[in-house]
Amino acid sequence: MKKSYLKTLLIGLLLGLCYSCAQNVTKPKPYGPIPTERQLAWHDMEYYAFIHFNMNTFTNMEWGDGSEKPAQFNPTALDAKQWVKTIKDAGMKGVIITAKHHDGFCLWPSKYTEHSVKNAPWKNGQGDVLKDLSEACAAYGLKMGVYLSPWDRNHAQYGKPEYVSYFHNQLRELLTNYGDIFEVWFDGANGGSGYYGGANETRKIDNKTYYQWDKAIEIVRELQPNAVIFGDGGPGVRWVGNEEGWANETNWSLLRKKEVYPGYSKYKELRSGHEDGTHWVPAECDVSIRPGWYYHPSEDIQVKSLSHLVDIYYQSIGRNASLLLNLPVDHRGLVHEKDVEQLMALKQQVEQDFSNNIAKNIKVTATNVRGNKAYFEASNTIDGDKNTYWATEDTVTEASMTLEFETPTEVNRILLQEYINLGQRVYGFNVEAEVNGNWVIIDTQTTIGVKRILRFDTIKASKIRVNITGAKASPLISNIELYRAPNLLTQPVVKRDKKGFVSMDVADKNIDIYYTIDGTEPTSKSNKYNEPFSIDAPTVINVIAYDAEKSKQTVSKTIHYDISKKDWKVIKVSSGKLTDAHKIIDDNPNTSWASNGENTPNEVVIDLGKVYQLEGFTYTPVQGRWPYGIVSNYEFSVSQNNKTWTTAITGEFGNIKNSPIKQTVRFNTLKGRYIKLKGLKIVDNDKRFSASEIGVITKQ
Ligand code: FUL
């Protein structure tokens, strides 16, 4: 009893002492523009999902022209809970949905238009996607945002003042009926051709004035005071100036806001922001997990690879920006299995990379500390509290901080954070490591901002030093973390060139590649890949990537190669440039050729250089985002002398439009030196005929 009384007294005395110290603490003054409370809350979001799901999902378009009919909107198994669970499981904190895209169709039963779910067959017109999503978000504890396209290619009054009232009314509906909204997304794409209630014409508007942005912002402030507004120039959050998911390494959360407007022509500046910006307008990186924003079955084979997604993560979140990763919900109304798989792979990799912060509780010192040392000491950067920070004296803008391990420790990532509540300050820094008693510079960089992550080769260091080499005002660093991330283990990419040389590659140079050419399963005892080697005859290659550090390997991948194409020549094309046609026999599916569709039959003739026993052929359609000229029905012929031809086979490539992958067709053995592929029918009745690669199967 007595003991505990004494303890309470002591604690009381200590608290009193601390309180009186606190009275003497003078905090650094803010420098330049600083974030608002709602922007600070948004900074905490960091990683959240975009959902592009709307009329385009059903018309297989990216931009509908506004003439679509509500009857076309009919998901068969829409389940917003599946989206939200996926997003939550992926480690994201929110979701923004395309409530209305440029084609004008509304995912909610807006009372201001008939062009909405209320006239769709889905749930007999009783459905409301926004409601489903907001309920799912509430159930899973996810924040919700709305994308509302200012441009509306359906609305008859678009271009006139009446449409602007309609746009504002719709904004009101969205911000009133669906709970808390964390972000309102205004797209910069604007004005042009459209259906416009049947007028089918081109309408131009002035992006800066037409939408009465001041009023729109007022509506958001009135109905959702905590929501940030996204636009090319903010005001709350800015576009990052590309749709690939990266910010520049130099990235200021500042913007000369008055200069930037929706559709800003110097948008590349947005990748770095403005060092002398007048307002706090941080960058958001929007990127899709597939080539398109909307779901297209043909892109099921083009979901971004793990290494690509990991790069996106480091080049957005690791560069002072947030990551808005798009999931194109499919026509069932679900996030596709392939997308779920990649999202989870990314989550797992990020978790592994940042699983063990080796800077926790280690010794840290600084060359300079602000007046009241107890409050601004260097150890504030490793205490896990984002509200405490290391600060230098007001006049000091160059200073260093050293982190010391007890024993030399492997490290390959550093994460740095500025205390942005008082402004973004640092414009120059480098990171050094003490290795075997010598200091080496690991990286030299510019800005830090809310979060900066650097990846570097694994080193065994006894100390890490962060040198701030330039800051607008005394640097305030709230957090430093160090990691030893595992190697990135992904399946090798295998390529063969026209000369027959096979090369293999993996995303992480610490990973080894092993392969076999005798049909057996490769292990870490098989052939180790070191440099390109030649494969001229039909061969099956089995390959794995192997992480020696963890004794872990990928599942094996099998590649079938037939004869190399080194002696091949395209000798005839029905139209288009013969000089470009070599692209269909360069063994590179990323290059392609197309006829111009002027002459029929649409065909190409290839000379294989000598006579072979042929048993089949392969056709790889164009792999780009906007493929055209894909052959759906073919005729394949063979000749020994380029005069007498034998038709080897005619047929159809099933489902090639939706699944434009390499097609393999076999036929009864025929001797031949010349081959001819004729496109009898082209997808979408296009007149052109294209290919990225044509190959043969020879008798073995
Ligand atoms: C762009 C739009 O035009 C695209 O369709 C997509 O919505 C993307 C996120 O923004 O400006």
Automatic annotation (TrEMBL):
<dbReference type="InterPro" id="IPR000933">
    <property type="entry name" value="Glyco_hydro_29"/>
</dbReference>
<dbReference type="InterPro" id="IPR000421">
    <property type="entry name" value="FA58C"/>
</dbReference>
<protein>
    <recommendedName>
        <fullName>alpha-L-fucosidase</fullName>
        <ecNumber>3.2.1.51</ecNumber>
    </recommendedName>
</protein>
<dbReference type="InterPro" id="IPR008979">
    <property type="entry name" value="Galactose-bd-like_sf"/>
</dbReference>
<feature type="domain" description="F5/8 type C">
    <location>
        <begin position="554"/>
        <end position="699"/>
    </location>
</feature>
<dbReference type="Pfam" id="PF00754">
    <property type="entry name" value="F5_F8_type_C"/>
</dbReference>
<keyword id="KW-0378">Hydrolase</keyword>
<dbReference type="Pfam" id="PF01120">
    <property type="entry name" value="Alpha_L_fucos"/>
</dbReference>
<keyword id="KW-0326">Glycosidase</keyword>
<feature type="domain" description="F5/8 type C">
    <location>
        <begin position="347"/>
        <end position="485"/>
    </location>
</feature>
<dbReference type="InterPro" id="IPR017853">
    <property type="entry name" value="GH"/>
</dbReference>
<dbReference type="InterPro" id="IPR059177">
    <property type="entry name" value="GH29D-like_dom"/>
</dbReference>
<keyword id="KW-0732">Signal</keyword>
<feature type="signal peptide">
    <location>
        <begin position="1"/>
        <end position="22"/>
    </location>
</feature>
<dbReference type="Pfam" id="PF13290">
    <property type="entry name" value="CHB_HEX_C_1"/>
</dbReference>
<dbReference type="InterPro" id="IPR057739">
    <property type="entry name" value="Glyco_hydro_29_N"/>
</dbReference>
<comment type="similarity">
    <text>Belongs to the glycosyl hydrolase 29 family.</text>
</comment>
